[in-house]
Amino acid sequence: MKTICLYFEIHQNVHLKRYRFFEIGKDHYYFDDYENERGITDTAERSYIPAIKTFIEMAKTYGKAFKVAFSISGCAIELLEQYAPEVIELLQELNETGCVEFLAEPYSHGLSSLANEDVFRDEVARQAKKMKELFGKKPTVLRNSSLIYSDDIGGLVADMGYKGMIAEGAKHILGWKSPHFLYHCAQNPNLKLLLRDYKLSDDISLRFNDSSWNEYPLFADTYMDWIAQLPEEEKVINIFMELCALGIYQPLSSNILEFIKALPAVAKERGITFATPSEIIAKSKSVAPMEVPYPMSWNDEERDTSCWLGNVMQREAFDKLYSVAERVLICKDRRITQDWDRIQASNNFRFMTTKNMGVGFYRGIYDSPYDAFTNYMNILGDFINRVNSLYPLDIENDELNALLTTIRNQADEINVKDSEIARLQARLHKYEGTPEAGEEPAKAEAKATATKKASAPKKEEAKAAAPKKAAAPKKSDVKTAAPKKAAAPKKAAAPKESEVKAEEPKATAPKKGAAPKKPAAKK
User: Distance between CA atoms of 510 and 513, rounded to whole angstroms?
Assistant: First the structure.
């Protein structure tokens, strides 16, 4: 049985404004708010909102027979929360159906995986935390920016505890192999790899409305027939694309959403199912390691990183940006952290490319790659000055590394203490019978009652076994046993045996400070 893994990326560029050289040191705000608001609201209205509503309808219609996956960059979440909160609400409604999985990715949608391991770890952790806050579950599968992947990146992601990663099924990497199998990382077999079928993906995202395409118009039946006709042993078909392909690249007038809506029913007729990335990883076995010595991506014909780091200008800006990475990591200034995320975004480097990108390539506000480089370096110069004002350049690398190590050790200690506190609180709740976090009072009361019943016999046994503590004597005994204060003991007279025997079991404790009396010897 063949399984389709359908995945969509949600990311929105944060547009920089025109920033002149003479503004360095005077203006610390770098972004075009008007263009950012216009861009995100337009994309939400034309693409995100109608597409997500379609997925909700499909989930309600087909139930568990339909599955889909998403990843959302941190920068996109910030823009959506500020200008288009309806998109977040619709994603939460879709999440309640149980038919969706949300993946982890770098917060900035940047290139930190190619530059600095600590920055990459920090970005992924912050984005995963945001996913947990919004959708109630921590991601277990990671998607890197633009599907950038290499053996080193895979080893790092495996060390971070992720079970799987999605990547590009690049022809120069696969060779004669097929992307329709589950592979694993060459450095760590615990990390499974889902490879994108770029032909089937681009048929929807790029060619669907192209009237010059020999398969135009494309119908759901035809598309599913292509998948059904694949060799029997090829079980996993990964269709990955940007969500804005539904409504922006392929306009709604092309009936792209009706095409998507028809896929589950047509797939069921051919015995084809849908699954999320984590479900495929859990059910399928890896067939072989995937060796990727150099980074690959899903961009351009080359499927590499040349569109971001292909010329001298791009590499200069890239090196300059990450030269302050260690200082930014220890910085707690919220403005600097937010600016850091936004200027890391990969589109800032893509604007500087000198490759022939075709007629429709979007360069934003820039007239040329040199214009983009100049504007970006002006902004970067001011940003670096702000960072250096907090952590001056005269701080040596050894001192900075020691400070970073101290911070990491303190964070580890805090985590250990938090887990210990949680353990002790759980024991305290169990002992006192108070409800724990998230526990119903009725369950806690029943648990406390059972604990009391179980402990009652033990208490009775303890009482029976323990020696009696100096029981309070009767009044009559006190009168006979208590010595008179004024009367001193006679030296010659010895107490009678009957009196001694009567008083022996009473074992009254002597007063503090008083020496015990020796019994008089018999004459």
Answer: 8
